[in-house]
Amino acid sequence: MYVATSGTLKRLLRSSHPHLILTHSPCSHKNRSRLDAATYYRTLQPHPWFVVVPLDPSHDGKPVGCVVGYVHANGVGWIALLLVKAAYRGRGMGGALGEVVQTYLRQRGVQRIGLDALEHMTEKYGRRGFVETNSVTYVVRQGVKDVPAVFAEEDQVAKGLSVVGLDEVPRERLVESDRECSGLLRTTLWSPEGLFDREDVFGLALVGEQGGVGESLRGWVVVRQCHDGYRIGPLYAESKVEASTLVKETLKAIDKKDREGSVCAELFVGNRDALPVFEELEFNAVANYRRMWKQGDEPEEQRAGGKGRRCMFAGFDAAHG
């Protein structure tokens, strides 16, 4: 049992707990769906969630903060969803959650540990040995009902390429492509039970004419609903032009499905083309995270010269890296 200044830490008791915390996230721009809470709970298993519950006997016993330390299939650790409800901050609960999750990962021999920190938290994480290596920009576009996605003739898919549903791409190819760009091996996430069984999720792939769909893959994108509209991510592409094509095709697909709500994404700014691609399509930067790694030990794929710096335009979200 780990005790904070005025709370006690426990392992997660029920799958409903993540949503209880997410609905009181300290950032209004998180824009999470209730379905995301279920996805997190399934895909971040078997690693435990830790929740903090106030010791005050008058409290209803519900958790007011949470964190999970996840270990990807290739041994890379990630600290996700370290959240404390606003009314309970400043009581040492966040620090206690941070300590217990790092202890959990160290006990399992995890050396490379990353997280996405809010800008005002970077100094605090820095004191715990985390070094800022990059940044993530959260962007939002008004829904296509308010700002129609109108494209010129030259914005059509380039000759020799075609757009297909993501379900046509072998799952193992998606897992491989994701690892090549992010340095994270996420076999659980890219599966029917992890994400693709959700009715709100769809995806597109950009493929060439030579070889099969997997061999000629030039880029792909996943889209899911959030509390207000849709979230794009990840978005991987071999070039800026191909990334732009996928965003345009995504906006067209959203227009056909449901014209209500905004469209958001978390962009990997280590790729200098990421923000321009979205800004050209009327997305606006709203907030920034700081990508931090313990002792600055980021995956090779995210370093200068790594494929992520060229091909990773948007990530899944801060909960998965």
Automatic annotation (TrEMBL):
Residue ranges of domain N-acetyltransferase in the record:
7-157
Superkingdom, natural source: Eukaryota
InterPro entries tied to this protein = Acyl/Acetyltrans_Enzymes, Acyl_CoA_acyltransferase, GNAT_dom, YitH/HolE_GNAT
UniProt GO molecular function? acyltransferase activity, transferring groups other than amino-acyl groups
Q: Where are the transmembrane segments?
A: none
Q: PROSITE patterns per the record?
A: GNAT (PS51186)
Under PANTHER family, the record lists: SLL0310 PROTEIN
- According to UniProt, the name of this protein is N-acetyltransferase domain-containing protein
